[in-house]
Amino acid sequence: ETFEGIFGVRFDLAWAYYMVGRYEEAAPLFEGLTGTRAPSERIRQQALFMMAEVSSRLAEVLPEGNPERQKLLDRAIVLHTDFQNDNKHHQNIPESLYGRAVAYFLRNDLDLSARDLGVVINIHHLAPVVEEAKFLLASVYARQGVESSTSGDDARAKHFLAEARSLFDSVIASGGSLALAASGLYSAAETWFEAGGYREAIKLYQKIPSRETMLKSLKSRMARVREERHAQMAQGVDPRVSNLRLSRLQGEFRRVEVSPGWGIAAYFKIAEAYLELQRFEEARTVARHLVPFTRGEQREQSWFLVVNTYLAQSKGDDAFREFAALQGSLGRDV
Asked: pLDDT of 84-133, one tens digit each?
């Protein structure tokens, strides 16, 4: 019993590292609990599940050409598959399916990723991870749309884009996480932008909510979870699941609070997309709109976008006028 308690503390420490994003420190602790030295089969299986999660997280930050990234993703998929085969009725099966779908997505195995996400959404529809699964599936559809467009199958590309937008809209309309929505929409839009699908990218960028809207939504969600936790404590029910949800929401709130906002980043990309499409008036309008809402380098960037639209049209006098106004506003060093 004491032996298992010691390893339980080690598991809790690894979990704490995982929750704050210190995956390199969590990995060896979880690894040490996956073999024959694990004090119980329960702890061993939990450690296997978490090791799969950590492998995906470590792979995610590595560049795509890095061979270590491929090894980590392959290992995550194997560990998740083993966990699912050995624990068919475990409460973490939905999370494991989602984790494997993430690894497949990072490996660009889009059909396999969509398959796992479909199981989570349709079979485990009450699991907390369903919302994240829908956003990831929308990103899968966006990438499949780009691949279809690149191969010349425009009808299939439009179908996937419509499916992606529909998923984003349905989750947002049902009161889902706007921060997750913003992240997913931006990722999907970037996929189209980088492939030259500027019109499709603009439609996705335009759906991204402002930072203020996201913070208001997160405050409301945290208040609901706190109420649930208080009710559980009053009834003598273990509140650990609610504590975990609240911790995730608080972390999400902090990330959104200190960020410049997905909305601002999206409007910069919209202006750039219009510039690529040679729709110069629309690009200028968006760039001018950004000026009063930005500071420092971002404000310079928005004004330079206005200048660049004139240069692209060979309107040197107008470009010089705008640049002079920029210097007058921000100083001669720009």
From this structure: 998 888 888 998 999 999 999 999 999 999 999 999 999 998 887 888 88
Listed residue (104, 59, 58) closest to 81, CA to CA? 104
Rg of the chain on CA atoms, in Å: 23
pTM of the model: 0.70
Q: Determine the straight-line distance between the first and last CA of the chain, rounded to whole angstroms.
A: 68
CA–CA distance, 125 with 172 (Å, rounded to integer):
17
Cα 169 off chain centre by = 16
- DSSP letter at 250? H
Q: What is the pLDDT of residues 58-72, one digit of tens each?
A: 998 888 889 999 999
105 within 8 A of 136, measured Cβ to Cβ: yes
Nearest Cα neighbor of 271 from 311, 318, 303 is 303
Residue ranges of alpha helices (H) inside 196-295 are: 198-205, 211-234, 240-258, 262-276, 280-290
The secondary element (H helix, E strand) that includes residue 68 is helix 67-86
Mean pLDDT of 270-274: 94
Backbone angles phi, psi at 250, to 5 degrees: -65, -40
Residue burial 194-221, b: 16+ Cβ < 10 Å; e: rest: ebebbebbbebbebbbbbeebbebbeeb
What does the alpha-carbon distance between residue 285 and residue 138 come to, in Å, rounded to a whole number? Answer: 30
In whole angstroms, what is the distance from residue 149 CA to residue 147 CA? Answer: 5
Residue 235 vs residues 226, 232, 245, 246: alpha-carbon distances, Å: 14, 5, 19, 19
Tokens of 161: 């884009």
Non-local CB neighbours of 4 within 8 Å, separated by 6+ positions: 39, 40, 43
**Which residues 6+ apart lie within 8 Å of 248 measured at CB?**
none
**Using CA atoms, how far apart are residues 37 and 151, in angstroms rounded to an integer?**
51
